[in-house]
Amino acid sequence: MRTRIAPLGNVSSLQFTFRLADGRIGTGIEPVREAERLLDDATFAHWRLTQDLGLPRWYMMTVRLERSGKYSVDFEYRDDYQEGDIMKPLE
Hints:
Blueprint: E1 2-5, E2 12-15, E3 17-19, E4 25-27, H1 33-52, E5 60-65, E6 71-76
Antiparallel strand pairs: 1-2, 1-5, 3-4, 5-6
């Protein structure tokens, strides 16, 4: 799951990708609306907390979850954000 939040916190987006058993990558599947809302709320709360603590505000958070249960979280920071960047598709 990747979530992106604009620098002012006024726009956010969630994107889900998954690896199929045959190794292909699938996209576009979203969880049920309640789960999506909870994920969006949690990522935005984390984004606000980093701002309140005076830490650099991240632009994108990527959460990877393996079938084994192992997970990792990576953050991307951007100084060159342009209006509308959040709507651009991720690679």
